[in-house]
Amino acid sequence: MNTGTTAVADTGAPVGSDTGVRSGARVGSDAGTTTGAEAATDVGKGVATNVMARVAHLERRFGDPRDPGNPLGFRALLAAEERQELPAEAEGLLTDEGFGAELVPAALGGRLVRADTLARVLRPVFRRDVALGFGHGITSLFAASAVWVAGSPEQQRSLARLLCGGGRATIVHHSLAHGSGLLRGEVGAERTRGGFSLTGRKDMVINAHRAEALVAYARNLPSTPGAGSHSVLLVDPDRLPPGGMETLPRKLTTGMRGCHFGGYAFHDCEVGPEALVGSYGEGVRLALRTFQLNRSLIPAAVIASVDTVLRTAVAAALAGRPGGPEGRHRPLLAGVFADLLAADAMATTALRALHLVPDGAHLAAAEVKYLVPDLLRDDLEELATVLGASGYQGGDGDGDRGALSKLLRDLPAAGLGHAGTAACQAVVIPQLPLLARRSWFRAAEPPDAVFRPGAGLPELDLAALGLAGGDDLLAAGLTATAARLRDSAVPGDAPATLKRYADAFVRELWALHDRCRELEVGDRAALSNPEMCALADRHALISAAGAVLATWERLATGNAAGADGAGDARGEGGAADAGGFLADPSWAVLALQRLGGRLGLALPAPPTGCVDRVLHEVVGRFRAGTAYDLYAAPLAEGGGT
Question: Is the pLDDT of residue 627 over 50?
Answer without folding.
Answer: yes
